[in-house]
Write a structure and sequence with these properties.
The chain has about 200 residues and is mostly helical. It is built from nine helices and no strands.
């Protein structure tokens, strides 16, 4: 898939989703090159962030996201994936609805976003910080009590943060961080309440 530097992310993703063949994590990473980390984080964490059936794959996607975040932390500029992960299907059982919902939200962000504080992006330290934040938010989503819906905000935080990095919009990245931080607080507060109630029952 060819793309131009000024082509919108949503248009590139839409073309990739509708090309013939399997929509796998490996092909997504190959297509987007140096943008792949942010794009893959958006696609993987959009699954638990969107109110759609997931087929029980959210924990797997969160684990993959955390391991890729570790690659960013150690300074990798391109994604490395085991062969088995490269075959991971993107979008799950509700791919059509997933793609529509994801592209609609990305286009909304693109409409109002523009590059802000671009000098902060593209540095190795920025990638490390990005990786640390994604790892922390993905871990929070992973540890959220099952069937509670508490993984939604940390996951959405990753998506918006990654969009901010991709669009080089510092304000959008901060919005994602705030959303994720609220999610972390809710997971800790409400999760502790759930555990306390379970302790009283058993």
């Amino acid at each position: 898939m060819s793309s131009t530097a000024d082509e919108r992310v949503s248009d590139q993703l839409e073309r990739w989703f509708h090309e013939p063949g399997a929509r796998t994590l490996g092909s997504l990473a190959d297509v987007f090159g140096e943008k792949a980390f942010a794009v893959v984080f958006i696609v993987l964490m959009a699954v638990p962030a969107l109110p759609l059936p997931t087929g029980g794959v959210t924990h797997l996607l969160e684990i993959v996201t955390m391991l890729l975040a570790l690659e960013l932390i150690i300074g990798r500029r391109t994604i490395w994936l085991p062969a088995r992960w490269k075959r991971l299907d993107v979008g799950g059982p509700s791919r059509g609805k997933f793609v529509t919902a994801l592209l609609r939200r990305i286009r909304w962000a693109e409409r109002f976003s523009h590059p802000r504080l671009r000098l902060l992006f593209g540095h190795r330290l920025t990638g490390v910080i990005f990786g640390v934040l994604v790892f922390a938010l993905s871990l929070t989503a992973f540890l959220a009590p099952p069937f509670s819906g508490l993984d939604t905000l940390p996951s959405l935080g990753v998506v918006v943060l990654a969009l901010g990095i991709l669009l080089q919009d510092f304000v959008l990245a901060v919005v994602g961080l705030v959303i994720g931080a609220v999610g972390v607080v809710l997971v800790i507060a409400l999760g502790s309440i759930v555990l306390r109630l379970l302790g009283q029952l058993f």
